[in-house]
Amino acid sequence: MNTISRKFGVCCLLLLLTAVTQTAQPQPEGGTSRALQVPEDGHRVLRANKNAPPQPAEPQVFQGYPDAPEFTVVDRVSELNFFPCIGCHSVLPLNTELRKLMAPHPAGLEHGNGQYWCLDCHSVENRNALRTLNGTEVSFDEAHLVCGQCHHDVQKDFYYGGHGKRVSGWQEPREVYGCTHCHDPHDPAVKPRAPEAPPPVRRGLGRSLREAER
Ligand code: HEC
Ligand code: HEC
Ligand code: HEC
Ligand code: HEC
Q: Within its chain, how far is the Cα of 164 from the centroid?
C-alpha cells in the first residue's frame, strides 16, 4: 500500500516536471508553423491569411467609352424648327402637369409606353437644353447622352460604330449622325415600310426565264 502510493507520487512529480519544462521551452519565432491566434471575439481563425481580405470597392461610376474612336456629331440645333425655345418659354409659366399639349408642340408622346413626360428629357431651368434623368444639362447636339441612359446597348454600339451612320469615309476625322437624325425622339420606333417594286428587267429576259422554268 505504501509502495503503491510512493510510486504514484513519483509519477505525478514526473508528469508535473515534463509539463513545466514543455511550457518553459521557447516557441519558434517566425518559423514555418505559426501558432494560430485565439481571438477574443470567439471567431476562430482557421489559417493565417497571407493576402489581405478584399476591401469593399468604391461604387463604379460610368465614365463613357474612353477607348472608343473619337467622333463629332452632326449639328442638330440648326435643324430645329422652334429653337431658341426660350423665345416663348422665358415668358410662359412652367406647367409640369401631364396633359395633352396644344400646338405648336407634339400632342402625343409615342415613346416608352407612356412612362415618361417631356420634362424627363427637356430641361426645366433652361428650355434651350436637354437634361439627363439626374438633371445634368445636355445640348441638343449631344442627344446620344440622353438616349444612352436607357438604350445603353445601342449607345455602346453607336460609340464603336455598330449603330448609326458615319458622314464621310473611313479617314479621320470621324463625324457621325446623332440619334435624332434618324429617330424622332417623340415617336422613335422605325416604322414598317412597304417594299419598293423590283427594278425593271431587260425586255425579253423575264419572259425567257419564265419559259426556261417550265
Ligand atoms: C412659339 C412659342 C414656343 C416655342 C418657340 C417653344 N414652345 Fe414649348 N410651349 C409653348 C406653349 C404655348 C406651351 C404650352 C402648351 C400647352 O400647355 O398646351 C409649351 C409647352 C412646352 C412643354 C411642356 C411643358 C411646359 O413647360 O408646359 C415643353 C417640354 C416644351 N414646350 C418644350 C419646348 C422646347 C424644347 C422648345 C424649343 C425646341 C420649345 N418648347 C419652344 C410654346 C412654345
Ligand atoms: C426621350 C426624350 C424626350 C422626351 C420624353 C421629349 N422630348 Fe422633345 N426632344 C427630345 C430631343 C432629343 C429633341 C431634339 C430633336 C432633334 O434633334 O431633332 C427634342 C426636340 C423637341 C422640340 C423641338 C422640335 C423642333 O423641331 O424644333 C420640341 C418643341 C419638343 N422636343 C417638345 C417636347 C414635348 C412638348 C414633349 C412632351 C410631350 C417632349 N418634347 C418629350 C427629347 C425628348
Ligand atoms: C428614360 C428612358 C428612355 C430614354 C431617355 C430614351 N428612351 Fe427610347 N425607349 C424607352 C423605352 C422604355 C422604350 C420602349 C421599349 C419597348 O417598347 O421595347 C423605348 C423605345 C425606343 C425605340 C423603339 C424601340 C423598338 O424596338 O421599336 C427607339 C428607336 C428609341 N426608344 C430611341 C430613343 C432615342 C433616339 C432616344 C433619345 C432621344 C431615347 N430613345 C431615349 C426608354 C427611353
Ligand atoms: C443613321 C440612322 C440611325 C442613327 C444615327 C441611330 N439609329 Fe437607331 N436605328 C436605326 C434603324 C434604321 C433602326 C432599325 C433597325 C432594325 O429594325 O433592324 C434602329 C433601331 C434602333 C432601336 C431599336 C432596335 C434595337 O436594337 O433595340 C433603338 C432603341 C435605337 N435604334 C436607338 C438609337 C439610339 C439611342 C441612337 C443614338 C445613340 C440611334 N439609335 C442612332 C437608325 C439609326
A: 20
Query: Is residue 145 in contact with ligand 4, taking CB distance under 6 Å?
Result: no
- The ligand with the least distance to the CA atom of 77 is 2
Residues 30-62 pLDDT 10s: 445 566 666 677 666 666 666 666 677 777 778
In this structure, are residues 86 and 105 in contact, taking their beta carbons and an 8 Å threshold?
no
* Residue 195 within any structural domain of the chain: no
**Number of structural domains the chain divides into:** 1
> Which set of grid coordinates corresponds to residue 152?
445603353
Q: How far is the CA of 141 from the centre of ligand 2 (A)?
A: 12
What is the 164 CA–ligand 1 centroid distance (Å)?
Answer: 29
Looking at 36-132, list the stretches that DSSP marks H as alpha helix, in order from N- to C-terminal side. Answer: 86-89
Q: Is 213 within the bounds of a domain?
A: no
**Of all residues in the chain, what percent carry a pLDDT higher than 70?**
71
Q: Is residue 121 part of a domain?
A: yes
Strands 130-131 and 137-138: antiparallel
Determine the structural domain holding residue 84 and report its residue range. 77-89+104-182
Mean predicted confidence (pLDDT) in 119-140: 95
Question: What atom in ligand 3 is closest to the CA of residue 115?
Answer: 12
Model pLDDT, residue 91: 93
Do 133 and 146 contact (CB within 8 A), yes or no? no
- From 121, 141, 147, 184, the mutation candidate for ligand 2 (largest count of ligand atoms within 8 A of CB) is 121
Any atom of ligand 4 within 6 Å of the Cβ of 154:
yes
Question: What is the CA(188)–ligand 4 centre distance, in A?
Answer: 9
> How confident is the model over 155-207, as pLDDT tens digits?
999 999 999 999 988 888 999 999 999 999 999 999 999 999 988 887 777 66
